[in-house]
Amino acid sequence: MTNSISRRGFFQNVSTGIYGAALAYLLGRDAGLRAAEVPLDLKPRPPHFAPKAKSVIHLFMNGGPSQMDLFDPKPALDKHHGDPYFNKIPGEVENPQSAGALMRSPFKFAQHGQCAMWVSDALPHLARQVDDLALIRSMYTTNLTHEPAIYLIQSGKMSPGKPTLGSWVVYGLGSENQNLPAYVVLDDPLGLPINGTENWQAGYLPPQFQGTRFRSTGSPILNLKSDVARPAEIVDMERDLLSRLDQLHKKERPGQPNLDARIASYELAGRMQLEAADALDLSRESLPIKEMYGIGREPTDSYGRRCLVARRLVERGVRFVQLYINAQIWDNHTSLATDLKAACQRTDQPIAALLRDLKQRGLLDTTLVVWGGEFGRLPIAQLSADKDERKAGRDHNKNAFTTWMAGAGIKAGTTFGATDELGMAAVEDRVSVPDWHATILHLLGLHHDQLFFDQNGLKDKLTGVHGGNIVKGILA
């Protein structure tokens, strides 16, 4: 009896070949796409000028941390606690039906470090690192609702479908490590943030510039490893065959950026099988380091693991690492005293440990660490349905919020900008979201006006048509 093999049988016997078949089918539909004159790989590219930072760790505090309860003390709130104020700001309140009077902070402030920076007792660990921080107290944005405000802080636009900050960075600079993604996302195992995966999408940029999610426990990326162990020689032969098939497919469809990006993602997945597992293997870290991050105990274990993984990734040349916290733990509309403290207890020690660890390894000289949310909070109370003032929180505030940066190129121990006496609005050295973006790009050696993507003849940029101003007051 003749032993013949069909095309389907061939691909079933070559384990990775089935993915090649699927790839050929899916990518055949890309033939009508117009080619774009953009870099289609993640190889390192020269910056516009000498950079201070080589990589970024973005600690995104989605939900809107309260500036006057963490970094911006307001004695006037103590003095005027309980005084009516809503009638002066009705258009700035998202939930007017629950608006109360002026509310003092339930936390105590003190000055810390040689720089005498003000920090509340909700952040005792970070308070010991203030001499490494540049605190921006005068941030403001243009929308007081989470979704559009998050789109703006992430992508420079208040609508979905735009490239995010991390995508712009790797589009401009590529990556130092070709065996790991250039842009890694460490989201919370407990759930996605508001706007979900749109927080790290590449938008209209080629898809290889979007963020790649890594899990902090278990297999870092689902379906990365084969279910069946095979000799390395066989794996190499399979990959070589698939690469040849891909090249034949590409040759018949030139100038297809999506096709190139998808093939590149499969090739990267193969190279990642060893290095991704190594980067996330925290068993290689000493017990004192893990204890410093709060790993192995609650409530710091999860965020501590992700902060330590972030350090291991930038140590290996990953360009942009972004950390998220689940849902909206900083969105303290009620029970501010307990809920804000709980948010700090989950993140304070791990973040302080990250700064210490980067510094002791010399990585803070080349890494920019960025902390902040999408907006701030109001100086008035937001009351619960039963009007119990003991359960009061704060509503959203687009006119004032606080962020900080640390590391490469930053003037450490700096407090920049100011809000009014109640913390309602930024009034001194105001910093817009485009200014914030322009400053991050500047520290990476990128000029925000020269980093663009041609969209139907228009040069679209992260900082938009009007651009931004570099916040020189926080630069070393």
Q: Could you walk me through the main structural features you see in this protein, from its secondary elements to its overall organization?
A:
The chain has 476 residues and is α/β, with parallel strands linked by helices. The chain is 30% helix and 14% strand. It is built from 11 helices and 18 strands. It has an 8-stranded mixed sheet with strand order 7-6-8-1-9-13-5-14, with helices on both faces. Strands 2-11 form a two-stranded antiparallel ribbon. Strand 17 (453-455) and strand 18 form a beta hairpin. Helix 6 (232-251) runs antiparallel to helix 7 (257-279). The radius of gyration is 24 Å and the shape is globular. The model is unreliable at 7-36 (pLDDT under 50).
Q: What is the residue-mean pLDDT, rounded to a whole number? A: 87
Oligomer designation: single chain
Number of helices: 11
- By secondary-structure content and strand pairing, the structural class works out as alpha/beta
| Spatial strand arrangement across the major sheet | 7-6-8-1-9-13-5-14
Helical fraction: 25-40%
Radius of gyration of CA atoms, rounded to a whole number = 24 Å
Query: In percent, how much strand structure appears in the residues?
Result: 5-15%
- Gross morphology is globular
> Topology as H/E string?
HHEHEEEEHHEEHHHHEHEEEEEEEEHEE
The biggest beta sheet, please? 8 strands, mixed
Distance between the termini: 79 Å
User: Uncertain spans, ≥5 residues at pLDDT below 50?
Assistant: 7-36
Number of strands: 18
